[in-house]
Specification:
Radius of gyration: 25 Å
Largest sheet: 2 strands, antiparallel
Helix content: 55-70%
Number of helices: 11
Oligomer: single chain
Length: 269
């Protein structure tokens, strides 16, 4: 489609030809009720990234002088003067002071962005039911609602798994061979190529973080222990937990029901 001279008329004719042949795939353009929440979630993510960047730059100043600064003690206002006194170079000390001021300002903006995002997310009917799912706190639920928009865009949970980056990609070639006058399928299994690469980063981070948090509950811990006992690797077991949380969240969002831990307990038994 990128070869040759391009013009609006040729592009329109080619798109019309592809549409007539059924070669175009539908694209989800978003849900109008969640547009505001989507922008607020983007804003919160940007503030979080900027805050993390300022914190890393601040620690880099101390590490450049071979000053150990592990942990979060270097960020606390009550200890800042003691940390600044460790910097003997005047320029580095002033730089650290500016970074502290930037960090304070970004933290305040991040709190305001979080407050605005949660205030908008609480207006959606799916917010409270999804918050009952283990591992899904208010922030993750707000990000999930903003990223998905409408749960009915996914016909099954497997489509949601692919959108979250949890789908396994398989590749196969030369599946059939000619044996005499018959075409037979070769006796070989499809080769896996890991997880799919086209996915929503926000959803993958949210559900993977929820999986780690859900392992603290009894129901999901039993599922994890059962998988580990059967020989499943730790990372694949956590992936399975993330898939289960995503499937539970989709089912609750579609049906409007509340989270029932007894159903998950029966599944883990």
């Amino acid at each position: 489609m990128k070869r040759g001279n391009k013009s609006d008329q040729k592009d329109a004719l080619q798109l019309a030809t592809l549409l007539r042949a059924g070669l175009l795939k539908p694209v989800y353009h978003g849900s109008p009720p969640t547009q505001t929440l989507k922008h607020l979630a983007h804003n919160y993510d940007a503030m979080t990234e900027d805050t993390t960047r300022a914190m890393n730059r601040l620690k880099a100043v101390f590490r450049s002088q071979a000053i150990k600064c592990a942990g979060r003690d270097v960020y606390y206002p009550r200890h800042r003067q003691a940390w600044l006194e460790k910097l003997k170079v005047e320029g580095l000390r002033q730089r650290a002071e500016f970074l502290y001021r930037q960090l304070d300002h970004l933290r305040e903006l991040r709190r305001d962005a979080k407050r605005a995002m949660l205030q908008e997310a609480r207006q959606h009917c799916a917010f409270k039911p999804l918050c009952k799912v283990p591992g899904l706190g208010p922030i993750r639920v707000a990000q999930i609602i903003a990223a998905i928009g409408s749960p009915f865009r996914f016909r099954t949970k497997r489509q949601l798994w692919a959108y979250c980056g949890f789908a396994v990609i398989t590749r196969s070639s030369a599946d059939y061979q000619v044996n005499g006058d018959r075409l037979e399928r070769r006796p070989k299994s499809a080769q896996t190529r890991g997880l799919n690469q086209g996915f929503s980063r926000r959803l993958k981070v949210a559900f993977k973080g929820a999986a780690l948090e859900a392992l603290k509950t009894a129901a999901f811990k039993k599922v994890y222990e059962r998988l580990a006992a059967s020989g499943v690797r730790a990372e694949m077991a956590r992936l399975t937990i993330a898939r289960k949380i995503a499937a539970v969240a989709l089912a609750i969002w579609k049906s409007g029901e509340r989270y029932d831990e007894t159903k998950l307990s029966k599944l883990a038994a």
